[in-house]
Design a protein that fits this description.
Blueprint lengths: L1 H17 L7 H6 L3 E2 L4 E2 L4 E9 L8 H12 L4 E11 L6 H22 L3 H6 L1 E5 L4 E5 L1 H22 L4 E12 L2 H17 L3 E4 L4 H8 L15 E4 H7 L13 E6 L4 E5 L8 E6 L6 H14 L3 E6 L14 E5 L23 H20 L8 H18 L18 H13 L5 H18 L15 H4 L4 E5 L10 H23 L4 E6 L7 H11 L8 E7 L11 H5 L1 E6 L4 H10 L6 H8 L10 E6 L4 E7 L4 H7 L8
Helix pairs in contact: 4-6, 11-12, 11-14, 11-16, 12-13, 13-14, 16-17
Length: 659
Amino acid sequence: MAKFFLLSMYAEIFANWVSGGRLINRDKISALGLKSVYNQFITRNWITKAWCITALPVAYDHNLQEGIQAKMREAYPHVRTITHTYNKPVNVNVNSRIYKQLMGSITSAYDEYASYFSELRDDEKLTGKTGYNPQTGRRYYINKEQLQKIKEKRDSYHYVYRAVSSGKQMFETYLFVQASAKTRRELERYGKRLVGLLQQDKICVREIKGNIGEYLSNFCPASFQRGNIKNTSSFLVGQEALAFQMPYRLKGLINSSGMLLGMDWQTRLPFVYNPLETPDGQVVLVAGRTGSGKTYTCFNIAQQGIGYGIHSSAIDFKGREWCKLAEFVDTKVISMDGADPVFVNTLRLDDLNCTKDNCKEMFSNAVTGTVMLLSLMVDLQPNEGNAVDLHTILEKATMKLYSREGVFQDNPETFSRTASMTYQDIIDIVADLESTGIYNENQVRICNLIKLRCSNYFSSDGRYSDLMRNEVTVGDILNTPLIVYSFNKNSNGELDLLDTIKVFMVQFLDSKKHEIRKQQHLHTFAFYEELQRCTSFTVLLRYISSRVTGSRSSNVSVFLLLNAISALDSDAMAQIRSNITTKIIGKVTEEDKKVLVEKFGCGAIEKYIDLIIDTSSVLYRNCFAIQYETGHNMDKALFKTILPDYMWEKLNTRDSVGM
C-alpha cells in the first residue's frame, strides 16, 4: 500500500511537470481537499486569498515582507499571513543598442524636464506651472510629481546598467501575499487594509482573481512551471535588492560592513553589528554574572575591531585574561603592579600634537585630569572639609603652574614646556598659596591635607613613591592595536585607593591616545571590566561620561563590563546611564533584570533575557541579548559568540564555557 501511494505521488509530480501544470485543474484541486472559486480557495476550515505585488518604487529601502508581516499580524492576529517569492534569473544585455538607446532617451528627457523645472519660481515648483509651446502648438504642465516619475525611470535604467556591468545577477521576481481567515468578512477587511497599506508606499498590488487554479498550479506549492500566468506580474530586481526583500533576512546579515559578533541563536545565521555607523561617542553596557561569558564575548569584539583598524585597550584586574589575545593580535601588556609599576603625568601636553582647533579643549582636559587625580590621592572625607574647596585649590595651583612656566591654553606652541612638569610642582604652589593668607581656616586645613597625603606619592621617602618612578607616555602605546593594563589582583574583593588611582591614570592615558587617533579619523575601543570594585567608582564613571559627551566624544566606544547592574543603579549614575546606547545582557539575576527593564530601557529584549536566565534549560547558555542604537539603526537580537576551537582553547576563561 505504501508503495502504491508513493508511486501515485511521483506520477502526479511527473504529470504536472509534463503538462505544465494543466493536469491540476479545478476538479483535481478539489479532490485534493481544495475548492477554488473566482477570487479565493477554500479548505475545510479556512478561506484563503492571494495578492500579487506587481511593482515597487525604484527607491524603496524597507523590507516589504517584514513590514507586511508586522503590520498585518498586529491588525489581524487571527488571520494567517504568508509572503513568498519565486525568482527567475534573467540576463539583461545592457550593452545592446536598444538598451543604450532607451537609457539615453529617458536620461535626455529627465535632463530637459529638470532644466525647465529649475527655471520655475519657488511657488511654481510647489504648485506646478501650465504654459503654451508655440513650436508644437500644445499646452504643457510642469510639476514636481512628473519630474520624480521621470527620475525614477532614469534611475532604474542606471541601476540595472551598474548592477549588470559589475557582474551582479538580475532576477524576475514574483512576490505574493497570501492570507487565510475563518470568515469571508474578516478576509475582506484584511484585503482592504493590506491594499491601503501598500498603496500608501506607492506599491502596486493586484488581487488574484479569475483563475485561482493558475496561481495554485504555478506557485503553490508545486514547482514553478511558467504556465498560463496572465493574472500575475513580476518585477526586475538585482541580487542585493532581492536579498534585502527576503523574509528570512535578519539583523546585519546583508550589511555592507560591520563586525561579526557571533551567531543569531534563534535562526543560526551570522549576526553582524556595525558600531561605526556614527562617529559619536558610545557607551556599551555588557552585563552578566560571573561565568556568563562577558569577557569571552568582548574578546571577539576587540579582535573584530582590530581587523577594522580600531585600536582597543582593556583593564585586566585579574592580570591573566586579556593577555591571552596576544597570540592572535599585536598586544602590549603594561604591568600596573609588581616591582616596576608605571605612572601617567596628566600635566603633559607636549605629546598630543595639539592645533589651534583643539588646544583649549586639551588644555582643559589636562587641568581636569590633574585635579581629579590629586583629589583621589587626597581622599577627602566628609568630616575633613568641602570637596568644592579641594577642587578649587588644586585647580588654582595647576593653572598657576602652567602660567608660571609660560604655557597658554590658546597657544599650542607653548605646550612643549610641559614636558618637565611634575606633580611636586603643584604641591609646592599649594604651600605658597597657603602662606598668602587668602584662605580661611577650613581651606588652610585642606591645603595641609593636600601636602600631607600627596607626600606619600611624591616625596622620595613616601609610602608609594615607587609608583612615580617609571612614566608611561602616549608614545609608548600609540601604535599598538591592543593595550592591556594588567593589575594582577584577586578576582574577589574591593580594590584599594592606590588601585583606583592607577585606573584613573590608565583612563587618562587612553583619552590621550583617543584624541590623537580622532585627529586621524580613527576609532578606539576601551574595555573597562569590574570598575565597581574600585573605591571611587563614581569618580571613574564621571570621567568616562565626560569622554563620551560633547565634541570630545567622537570616534570612541567605551564598554563597561559589570557583574551586577546595581553598580549603576543610583542617582549619581544617572548621567552615565543616559549615555548608554547599546546593552549586551547575559545571565543576570531577576532583580537586575527588573532594573534593566525599568531604568535602562531594556523592555524590548526582556523576553530574550528571560530565555537566558531560565535555569530549566541550557539551550541559551552563554547567550546574550543585544539592544543597540548605532545612530542609523535600532534593533535587537539574541546571539552567541562562536569562535574556532583552536581559539576557544586559548581564550577560554573562567567566564566562558564552550559550545
